[in-house]
């Protein structure tokens, strides 16, 4: 083989390799993403499958989340099983557009457990800002206000609801920094749950949700969980 032929062959290999790499990158960039959050305080662990493929080898337990997993755009079937069972507790089809982010919450007490899917419409990055969403997922806790300790209120009169309104499902911009936050009984100064040393980093997005039962004990007691969405 001549030097010229070798040179052409090297160029062809380079082009093919580059093309394959670009295709893989583009495919990943258009995938939708799905997160599952176990927010039912007295429910056992669950397994989750997308198109009958489990997204994890271990059960998802309260109050944990799966993190985002990539989902091929299009109509996908989602199933939720009691851990180790082959009989689905829930099964539904969902259309996943390209590049969209979604979260499925398993919420309420075990005898009323339901699923709620929401789009995570995270705003663009703003310099020196984080974005925060608050959800009230404690089934028996009263409505609450969320305020910076000795500072302004961030969210007002949030009550447990099996459906979120569009106004509840909004990521609000806050100054990046570390906060002490009071979860207060709505309309009062009574602090139901103090959250200390909560750091919101610039450019990141978070979901903070009230979890557990008011009057509950251990992991099922009233608390708050923080998810990093970006």
Describe this structure in words.
This protein has one helix spanning 3-30, and strands spanning 32-39, 46-50, 53-54, 69-71, 74-82, 88-96, 101-107, 114-119, 129-136, 144-148, 153-158, 172-175, 177-185, 191-200, 205-211, 223-228. The chain has 230 residues and is mainly beta. The protein folds into two domains: 30-120, Immunoglobulin-like; 126-230. Strands 4-1-7-8 form a four-stranded mixed β-sheet.
Which structural traits does this protein have?
4-stranded antiparallel beta sheet; mainly beta; 4-stranded mixed beta sheet; single chain; globular; Immunoglobulin-like; 16 strands; 2 domains
Summed up, what is this model?
The chain has 230 residues and is mainly β. It is built from one helix and 16 strands. Mean pLDDT is 89; it is low at 3-27.
The spatial strand order of the largest sheet comes to: 4-1-7-8
SSE string = HEEEEEEEEEEEEEEEE
Radius of gyration (CA) equals 22 Å
H/I helix tally: 1
Estimate the helix proportion, in percent.
10-25%
List the helices and strands and how they pair.
Blueprint: H1 3-30, E1 32-39, E2 46-50, E3 53-54, E4 69-71, E5 74-82, E6 88-96, E7 101-107, E8 114-119, E9 129-136, E10 144-148, E11 153-158, E12 172-175, E13 177-185, E14 191-200, E15 205-211, E16 223-228
């Amino acid at each position: 083989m001549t030097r010229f032929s070798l040179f052409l062959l090297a160029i062809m290999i380079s082009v093919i390799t580059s093309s394959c790499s670009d295709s893989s990158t583009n495919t990943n960039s258009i995938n939708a993403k799905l997160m599952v959050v176990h927010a039912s305080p007295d429910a056992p662990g669950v397994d989750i499958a997308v198109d009958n493929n489990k997204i994890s080898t271990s059960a998802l337990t309260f109050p944990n989340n799966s993190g985002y997993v990539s989902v091929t755009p299009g109509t996908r079937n989602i199933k939720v099983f009691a851990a180790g069972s082959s009989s689905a507790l829930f099964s539904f089809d969902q259309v996943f557009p390209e590049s969209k982010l979604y979260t499925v919450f398993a919420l309420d007490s075990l005898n009323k457990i339901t699923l709620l899917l929401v789009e995570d419409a995270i705003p663009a990055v703003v310099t020196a800002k984080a974005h925060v969403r608050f959800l009230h997922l404690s089934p028996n806790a009263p409505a609450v206000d969320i305020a910076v300790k000795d500072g302004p209120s961030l969210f007002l009169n949030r009550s447990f609801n099996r459906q979120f309104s569009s106004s509840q499902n909004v990521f609000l911009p806050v100054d990046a920094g570390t906060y002490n936050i009071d979860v207060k009984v709505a309309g009062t100064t009574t602090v139901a749950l103090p959250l200390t040393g909560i750091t919101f980093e610039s450019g990141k997005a978070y979901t903070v949700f009230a979890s557990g039962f008011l009057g509950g004990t251990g992991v099922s007691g009233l608390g708050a969980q923080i998810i990093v969405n970006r």
